[in-house]
Amino acid sequence: MQALLPIEALVKRDRYVVIAGLLGVTGLAWAYTAYLAWDMRGMDMASGRSMSMPMTADWTFGDFGLMFLMWTVMMTAMMVPSAAPMILMFGTVARKRREQARPFVPVGVFVLGYIGVWSAFALGGTLAQWGLHAATLLSPTTMTATPVIGGALLIAAGLFQLTPIKNICLTECRTPLSFLLTDWRDGYGGALSMGVKQGAYCLGCCWILMSLLFVLGVMNILWIAALAGFVLVEKVAPAGSWISRATGVLLTGWGVWMVLDSAL
To answer: For residue 78, what are the domain limits?
Structure first.
């Protein structure tokens, strides 16, 4: 019995390390996001820019880099917590494989693949913001799109919530053990590809919801937190699929109202 104690202690310690790592990454990402939101409030209207984000129509290469960093960190803050059940399950499976002297990979490799997918989305978000800003369709002070574009995004998001592809991707995100048992790959490359695949399912589930940041403000910290909270509930709540459908109806109605109100 004594021979098992060191292994049990190692397994317990590793789990704490993974949890601490997730809390650390998420905490830093939220801290930076909150800082940028605060920085927006104190921007210099005379120069047309804040301390860290461009407000003028013409972006430099450095401005684009800062906005890409902002989107990447923001996506990490919003999406890593919702992936925590999957990441913890991956850690559990990896530890059991190590106990059995089978090939295993550090959890961080899986997380890297997951964040890589959302970094790619962050690039798309940066390009979209750049385009809207250059076309003067995005408020430089609140980073909100015009009511027509905002309403269209809400309608698109609402309708997407009701589609089969949304349900398929959400189901994959809600069943971590099933995903790991059917898609496990050995080695660092395998773990990275698993993280990418899980990130792709997550992206397929939530990409249109992330676009709603343009509705109430890209750096509206309350809106960011609300969207992140909804994504988490959608993935872990017992009635997540029904919540998704009900929200789809509400978002569609909100979007129709916004478009009609702007036309009056």
So the answer is: 2-263
